[in-house]
Amino acid sequence: MRFNSLPEWLAWQEQLHFTEIDPGLDRIRAVWLRMYADNKLPFRIVTVAGTNGKGSSVALLASILSAAGYRTACYTSPHLLRYNERIVVDGQTATDTQICEAFERIDKARAEISLSYFEFATLAAADIFCRQNIDIAILEVGMGGRLDAVNLFDADIALITPIGLDHTVWLGDTREQIGVEKAGIMRAGHPVVCSESSPPSTVVEIAHKLGASAYIADKDFSAESHDKAWHWHNTRHNLQNLPLPALLGCYQIQNSAAVLQVISLLKDAGMEKINETAIRDGLVQVRLAGRFQMIDGPIIHIFDVTHNQQGAENLAKLIQEIPCRGKTHAVIAMLRDKDSRAVFDALIPVIDDWFIGGLNGSRGQSAEDLAAGLQGKITDDRVHVAELVEEAYNLALEDAVNGDRILIFGSFHTVEAVMRHIPEFINEPLSASA
């Protein structure tokens, strides 16, 4: 074996390929076909693409399918604290040994072919799933869809969550252009579910060309929320007084409604163990770190990986919905390729004080550059700048008093950095991240 530990493998992978992001399926397909000779996996696949709501949708799907008794696997990215979080079977993260052994098989098969960090992860997940006798895998697209490594594998059902402006350098600077990339996960003759009631027209057009039945929110299925329950129906099923999903935020009804349409299609396709009890249990049992993850205490902590305008608007609504008797302090750090000004604009009305830090790494934005996005929008005394996000968090903690809350957001890297800085989150040695 090339390396004996997961951190060694990951550190090597970070330097192996000439660039961190390199869209395209030729390299990964060639390696996979050397390993398995067929890119048709021996289990059902739901592929999830979109700008916001992907992680929540994956978690909701997995929770319901597991509650129904199906052996369910999930591949997601990025991770928060441990690389192993990316590869999960029946709620259990893959072990270091499983991942290292998969990396070794991939390394031998690839020979002269260079692979990116994400391509290694995607192949490892598929390889591990093939060895676990699973019933269904839920695969989250990393970026875009059409040229994303996850799209190597044919989806039985495609789920496209709300589409906003993100990764515009790679995907295009309009929703219609980005929609083309997201629609790339569709397959001819296989259904696609859209969480939005008005998805980009390109998504619908491509579905029509492929002969892929499109199920669109508020047209082919719908949800209504009332106090502490909600209702869902499509042309074949009607579910009343469902429990609210355990994930906070009114937008989780939108995510859950699309998930139930996927569930309906899976049930119609033969997954008959899915019943209303499994749906109800799955909704209340779902868990997802880093999505408005609230930690109670004298000073409430809220962790959220939001990093674009659409997500920030949802986050602002949720901040308004949940009262706080004290101040709301924001700790933010972001990557350089994100539209930080749009994020600030969405959240300025609900934040009292801003604590801005920088992120390490080639993609990290400096605190000074990030803070420039607030100049002229609020008074200088409400902005506090530190070199690193951990230092910004310390400043916020010093400033906060009992009854206040601290919102930590802006990137997976931001949430990870602060979580690692808080002893309660560190329970075991952690692997490298990227």
Layout of strands and helices, then pairs:
Layout: H1 6-16, H2 26-36, E1 44-49, H3 54-67, E2 72-75, E3 87-89, E4 92-93, H4 96-110, H5 117-130, E5 136-140, E6 157-160, H6 168-171, H7 175-182, E7 192-194, H8 201-210, E8 214-216, E9 221-226, E10 229-234, E11 238-243, H9 251-268, H10 276-285, E12 293-295, E13 300-304, H11 309-321, E14 328-332, H12 340-347, E15 353-358, H13 367-371, E16 383-388, H14 389-399, E17 405-409, H15 412-421
Parallel strand pairs: 1-5, 1-6, 2-5, 6-7, 7-8, 13-17, 14-15, 14-17, 15-16
Antiparallel strand pairs: 2-3, 3-4, 9-10, 10-11, 12-13
Helix pairs in contact: 2-4, 3-9, 3-10, 4-5, 7-8, 11-12
Structural description of this entry:
The chain has 434 residues and is of the alpha/beta class. It has helices at residues 6-16, 26-36, 54-67, 96-110, 117-130, 168-171, 175-182, 201-210, 251-268, 276-285, 309-321, 340-347, 367-371, 389-399, 412-421; strands spanning 44-49, 72-75, 87-89, 92-93, 136-140, 157-160, 192-194, 214-216, 221-226, 229-234, 238-243, 293-295, 300-304, 328-332, 353-358, 383-388, 405-409. The protein is built from 15 helices and 17 strands. The strands form three sheets. Strands 4-3-2-5-1-6-7-8 form an eight-stranded mixed sheet, sandwiched between helices. The chain is globular, with a radius of gyration of 21 Å. Mean pLDDT is 92; it is low at 428-434.
